[in-house]
Amino acid sequence: MAKEAQLYEIGLLIHPELPEERASEVLGTVRSYIEKSGGVLESTVDPKLRRLGYAVKKNTQAYFAALQFVITPEAVTKVKKEVDGNTNILRHLILTWKKEAPRTILRRNIEKPEGSVASPPVVPFTPAEKKEENKTDIQEIDKKLDEILGNQ
Question: Is position 52 within any domain?
Fold first, then answer.
């Protein structure tokens, strides 16, 4: 009994010593593995050279690429075996995704209950009052400094 096709994603770390065109070809071979196994591609992330968080097979950089595809679970094992045999791929990870219908967001009008107290009005800050306080403080400080230093 064949199981229903599911959405998968495969993330690939491709050897960094390859030129970028060759890394794209490696991604193309993985793509062909999927299509030969009866899979349908959903999306692709082209290979980009990235610095790795830790060394993978003594490499601190690798090309990262990803493919999303729909395929049956039995066929995924075939794709995995093909990818395991490719020496240009340092590491790979196959994830299962679930397709969900888009959700609608319901919005409610929030009304204040009857008898609730209105919030107090906001009083704006006037910077003129603050400046006057600063001037007085500065004048007092200048007087005290003159007294201390004896510059009267």
Answer: yes
